[in-house]
């Protein structure tokens, strides 16, 4: 079916409605990796309809598909010597990742792990390229232990038993130690450690002095220090240097009011590239470790840089996507002289160059705090009663709405629906205080932000206040359910996509390795049990007046399908208009092209009838 959502106004004939099917079929390429000799570039691309491993020659020419699996490829990493190429995959999006190896980036992939019930979290290649370090939970499903494997033989040994969620970040340059990130106290209160591989002893690094999130960590080439992207002692993330002799942490690159998202060090070990987050948009700058001024480099178009690395020849490689373009692999010549699109993933013949760009705006919430939000303007003549509006709320909540590609938004706006994507309190990208402003007992303040924005838009003369809907995925699904129960008079339609309905049962059924991380954000399932029940929308569904669409997948390890089933069963039992779309063999998101067509096609049709 060619799903489209016609504008219900009498001016529908004046619109060029972009069909959902064509938009969903636009392909992408991302997550580039470069071989040590600089000759090959690997990436994850979905040209076949499912994310797989692809290779292309750095010198140019067509790419070729390396894997043809029935499951998605999630991560890729070249060994630091030779061309051995590791990738990870799971089954139906269950996030119980397994490791595979493509020897010398050619031939038949072979599995490195054989435990489909165990989560393997990718870590690092050793400097010699013969070993890998990673985290896994075979001993206790709730705990990630650290392991090392000899790639040639598959021999493994446990390096360090964990106490919660921990990850292997990087080997020291001499291969004698392993850098560890420990999230026992939550993903915003992390600590670092160094495991001596000979003795197995753990050295705590830079003991925690406050709530710190370590985004990335890379050893300096001489092994005497570690470059960190973190918010240690700061409101925003910065590039900092941890001296291993003194454990002093010194800021190297910080941009006022912006997070440093990514950075890469030039092969000359002096020059660097930095990507910062400016109201959700990426800003690329070049500089040096000596502390000189950063020099801005214009991206090919406004958008988000998703990854960044230097090739051996000094060129920058990165994944870039924007509101009007799916992700592609780009090369930036040395010194930022120019960009070339290396992947040019197929775009299904859909032309988006004339689409209006999203605009960042701010409005005060219930307590005067300003809430940033993206506004995607509809096209065509304004209906007499005003535009219908669809709010789309991001997940997380440790996340941020950014101007990345959303096929469905182009469909909605081309059909005359205004789309608003808020970054309510608790979102990242606006500093630590804003990020923590919804923790535990302040959970419902973020919902109040959403309802305040909804009422502000309802008061606009160009908006039809009787046709305002809300949609969200994951934690955004919780926001949908909470909004339609807290302000039932405001919302005309609700779409909950694998959202949290009941925090009590979520903590009992989510992947055991994630439970402690969620407890740090939402509340302890024992000591905060009463509060978790109080903020669970499932207990207030009698207030809902809007028709509801529930979408959930069978293999979701983060928000199991029982969450959606609870909402559907209770609303259906009351005779409330509700529909549930169940998707088999998918996890926390929809990656198979056929399933994406089904899900977003049904959402388009449902909105046509209900908004």
- The percent range for helix content is 10-25%
- The N- to C-terminal Cα distance equals 21 Å
Instruction: Report the uncertain regions.
Output: 4-14
Quick one: how many beta strands?
Answer: 36
Strand percentage:
25-35%
> What best-fitting shape do the alpha-carbon axes yield?
globular
Mean pLDDT: 93
- Main sheet strand line-up: 29-30-32-31-33-34-35-36
> What is the CATH topology assignment of the domain at 12-22 and 350-610?
Rossmann fold
In the CATH hierarchy, what is the superfamily of the domain at 12-22 and 350-610? Alpha/Beta hydrolase fold, catalytic domain
Which second-level CATH architecture of the domain at 12-22 and 350-610 applies? 3-Layer(aba) Sandwich
Structural class: alpha+beta
Tally of helical runs: 10
CATH class of the domain at 12-22 and 350-610: Alpha Beta
Taking the sheet with the most strands, its summary is: 8 strands, mixed
Rg, nearest Å: 24 Å
Give a description of the structure.
The chain is an alpha+beta fold and 611 residues long. Among the domains are: 12-22 and 350-610, 3-Layer(aba) Sandwich (Rossmann fold); 255-346. The chain is built from ten helices and 36 strands. Helix 4 packs across helix 5 and helix 6 packs antiparallel against helix 7 (512-522). The chain is globular and about 65 Å long. Residues 4-14 have low confidence and may be disordered.
Write the topology of this structure.
Blueprint (H helix, E strand, L loop, with lengths): L19 H5 L4 E6 L5 E6 L6 E6 L6 E2 L7 E6 L6 E5 L8 E5 L7 E2 L8 E6 L5 E6 L8 E6 L5 E5 L5 E6 L5 E6 L8 E6 L5 E4 L8 E6 L5 E6 L7 E6 L5 E5 L5 E7 L5 E8 L2 E8 L6 E3 L6 E7 L5 E7 L2 E8 L6 E3 L17 E6 L5 E7 L10 E7 L13 H8 L3 E5 L9 H4 L7 H16 L4 E11 L1 H12 L6 E5 L5 H7 L2 H11 L6 H6 L13 E6 L8 H12 L4 E6 L9 H18 L1
Parallel strand pairs: 31-32, 31-33, 33-34, 34-35, 35-36
Antiparallel strand pairs: 1-2, 2-3, 3-4, 5-6, 6-7, 7-8, 9-10, 10-11, 11-12, 13-14, 14-15, 15-16, 17-18, 18-19, 19-20, 21-22, 22-23, 23-24, 25-26, 26-27, 27-28, 29-30, 30-32
């Amino acid at each position: 079916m060619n799903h489209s959502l016609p504008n219900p106004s009498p001016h529908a004939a004046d619109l060029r409605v972009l069909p959902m099917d064509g938009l969903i079929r636009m392909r992408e390429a991302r997550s580039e990796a470069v071989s040590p000799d600089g000759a090959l570039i690997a990436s994850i691309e979905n040209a076949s309809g499912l994310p797989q491993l692809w290779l292309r020659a750095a010198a140019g020419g067509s790419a070729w598909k390396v894997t043809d699996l029935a499951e998605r490829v999630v991560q890729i990493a070249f060994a630091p010597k030779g061309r051995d190429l590791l990738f990870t995959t799971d089954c139906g999006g269950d996030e119980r990742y397994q490791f595979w190896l493509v020897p010398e980036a050619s031939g038949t992939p072979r599995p490195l792990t054989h435990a489909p019930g165990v989560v393997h979290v990718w870590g690092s290649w050793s400097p010699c390229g013969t070993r890998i370090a990673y985290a896994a939970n075979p001993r206790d499903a709730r705990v990630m232990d650290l392991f090392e494997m000899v790639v040639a033989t598959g021999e493994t040994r446990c390096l360090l038993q964990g106490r919660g969620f921990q990850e292997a970040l990087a080997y020291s340059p001499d291969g004698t130690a392993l850098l560890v990130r420990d999230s026992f106290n939550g993903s915003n209160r992390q600590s670092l450690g160094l495991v001596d591989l000979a003795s197995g002893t753990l050295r705590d690094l830079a003991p925690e002095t406050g709530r710190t999130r370590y985004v990335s960590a890379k050893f300096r080439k001489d092994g005497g220090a570690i470059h960190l992207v973190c918010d240690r002692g700061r409101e925003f993330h910065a590039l900092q240097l941890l001296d291993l002799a003194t454990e002093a942490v010194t800021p190297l690159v910080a941009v006022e009011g912006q997070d440093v998202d990514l950075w890469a060090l030039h092969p000359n070990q002096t020059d660097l590239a930095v990507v910062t987050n400016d109201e959700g948009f990426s800003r690329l700058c070049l500089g040096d470790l000596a502390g000189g001024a950063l020099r801005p480099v214009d991206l090919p178009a406004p958008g988000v840089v998703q990854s960044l690395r230097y090739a051996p020849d000094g060129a920058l490689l990165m994944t870039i996507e924007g509101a009007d373009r799916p992700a592609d692999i780009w090369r930036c010549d040395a010194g930022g002289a120019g960009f070339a699109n290396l992947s040019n993933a197929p775009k299904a013949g859909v032309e988006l160059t004339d689409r209006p760009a999203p605009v960042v705006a701010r409005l005060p919430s219930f307590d005067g705090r300003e809430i940033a939000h993206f506004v995607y303007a509809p096209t065509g003549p304004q209906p007499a009663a005003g535009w219908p509006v669809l709010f789309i709320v991001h997940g997380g909540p440790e996340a941020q709405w950014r101007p990345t590609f959303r096929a469905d938004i182009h469909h909605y706006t081309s059909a005359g629906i205004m789309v608003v994507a808020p970054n309510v309190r608790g979102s990242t990208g606006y500093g630590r205080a804003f990020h923590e402003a919804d923790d535990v007992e302040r959970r419902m303040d973020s919902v109040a932000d959403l309802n305040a924005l909804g009422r502000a838009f309802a008061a606009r003369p160009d908006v039809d206040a009787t046709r305002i809907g809300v949609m969200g995925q994951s934690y955004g699904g919780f926001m949908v359910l909470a909004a339609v129960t807290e302000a039932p008079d405001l919302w005309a339609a609700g779409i909950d996509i694998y959202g949290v309905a009941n925090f009590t049962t979520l903590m009992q059924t989510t992947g055991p390795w994630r439970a402690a991380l969620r407890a740090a954000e939402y509340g302890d399932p024992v000591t905060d049990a009463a509060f978790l029940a109080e903020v669970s929308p499932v207990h207030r569904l009698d207030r809902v007046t809007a028709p509801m669409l529930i979408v959930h997948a069978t293999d979701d390890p983060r928000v199991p399908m029982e969450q959606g089933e609870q909402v559907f069963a209770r609303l259906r039992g009351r005779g409330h208009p509700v529909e549930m779309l169940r998707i088999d063999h998918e996890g926390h998101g929809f990656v198979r092209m056929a399933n994406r067509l089904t899900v977003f096609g049904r959402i388009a049709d449902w909105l046509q009838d209900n908004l």
